[in-house]
Amino acid sequence: xxxxxxxxxxxxxxxxxxxxxVVPGAQRMNRGRHExxxxxxxxxANGVTxxxxxxxxxxxxxxxxxxxxxxxxxxxxxxxxxVMRHEVPDIGTMSxxxxxxxxHNFTSRLGQRVCSILKYLFPVPKEDSKRVITFANQDDYISxxxxxxxxxxxxxxxxxxxxxLASLHQHGPQAAVPERRLRGTPGPERPPCSxxxxxxxxxxxxxxxxxxxxxxxxxxPRRWLGM
Length: 227
Known about the structure:
Layout: E1 2-4, H1 10-22, H2 36-45, E2 50-57, E3 60-68, E4 74-78, E5 80-83, E6 100-104, H3 109-119, E7 131-138, E8 141-150, E9 167-170, E10 174-183, H4 195-209
Parallel strand pairs: 1-2, 6-7
Antiparallel strand pairs: 2-3, 3-4, 4-10, 5-10, 7-8, 8-9, 8-10
């Protein structure tokens, strides 16, 4: 399920529509004035497996929450340099086939955790699917892009292995996504992130990011929760 923060701008609404095309089988829901707790209860009652919440700042998409239901984990991402489909010249139509996934440089324990959160948003693709989504990690910024391939895809388990590509044509939105935080299910009933969890994540970010350390512990900004 994909939704937005309260009172979304036209640009955020458009981005939510494009994200619906990115994730096969996803549904888009107008946020209205619903609180996060009510959204979670509705999703759990209807068997929704993941809740994605998009946020913005002054009309520019700048945040993404991915929460796996019913028990988490939940990842908080910052979005930057977002480019939507209508901003790419001669982009053509966008396939809605289940994509093959390429993950590059997710080698640390934290990177593997983030990789798992992202890859299980997508069903297993068919071997002849020509749609490719790339998540490339560099200095803990995840570059995200969508392409259609011309050539042969040698797909392995869940579509993640070497893919021989003759050419790639961009057919979807793209963004840089620095990961911010991991914890359990959001909302009033969420389990707290333990001290050991916080320490482990802090050490991982210190090793991977170096001197630039995003916040790991603490409360989510109130504007992200639409309060």
